Amino acid sequence: MTEPILVRTRVDIAQAMSRRSGGETAAVLTMGALHDGHTALMRAARQRVGVSGHVVVTIFVNPMQFSPDEDLSRYPSSFDTDIETCRREDVDVVFAPSVDEMYPDGDVAVSVDPGSLGEILEGAARPGHFTGVLTVVLKLLNLTCADVTCFGEKDFQQLVLVRRMVRDLDVPIEVVGVPIARAADG
Length: 186
Prior knowledge:
By secondary structure, this protein is of the alpha/beta class. Helices cover 38% and strands 15% of the residues.
């Protein structure tokens, strides 16, 4: 196990990704507070790209996907533990930008509209949520320069929307759905 490279800026992620040689890159996009579902994604990513490939994990709590009545400040944070998890899972790069780094102009003037697929199920209960999700997913995929990204099937609506966005916007990346990681008691 080697220590993952920790980067926090656009410049640093670009440099880290330009230094990779050979093999594909897989991205696992998270908001931190990593758990068994996330480690399943990291393992799937490593399996997909192999030992010669690269796995990058993003840790970014995206304020765009929280509504005004949801408490963004209460979202759990365990950064040191998350880095240790990434180390154990043989992650090559951790990209953990600040809100200012991701949204340097504050409010986003251009965002990704999830269309009618984002207005049902969870989208109906959380208006605007999937606009925030898809906008940050697109930004992170562009910044990580990944060839493949792994998303859990647990958040099935999100997986469907990410796949649709990638197809509709011609994003050159493969979206892999990873089965739900369940505890021993189900």
